[in-house]
Amino acid sequence: MKVGTDGIMLGAWANADRPQRILDIGSGTGLIALMLAQRFPDARIDAVEIEKGAAKQAQGNVARSLWEHRINVQHLDIEQFQPPCRYDLVVSNPPYFADSLKGPDIARNMARHADSLSAMHLLESVDRLLNSSGTFCVILPIADGTSLLVSAAEHQLHCQSICEVRPNVGKTAHRWLISFTRSEVDVVARSSLIVEAGRHNYSDEYRTLTREFYLKH
Fold this sequence. Notes:
alpha/beta
């Protein structure tokens, strides 16, 4: 589970007003943390990953980047993570496919299945670690996103924007990019994004969103 479209979209889409402290929950190999370091040059980023191999690769990726001094990768269960302060921006590309059949690769299962980080535990961690004016951003399949919206309200996390993601022009939306805030929201901002305009041909809107991160676009 290395570079995937979900992670790229979240890393490019997640936003906050000049965040100083950013947390990436379930960082995998560090993709989103690195993208956020590039986007927010004043921010310090903590990246927490429970799977040992992924955390080790994330540490290596960070060490070879321009932002090594601003990214701290920790091999740790997020429920055990006790930082000295709360965060302005929390992001997560969490495991999903909670009810699907698992394969033989334990690390890949951990990345793709919610056993290691359920929605309840994710929200509890966000509630504990997000500051009073912070933003939480996540990408999920729509069914999981719908459930998360209901559960988030119980943790005083209010949806402020949803972007529906369609894989191509002929398909229905299959992902939601969602941002939450501590403050109550009168109107949820809604938008949409099509990833591919044709086979192996990114749409103009996807290119615009992610243009800072591709060497060849």
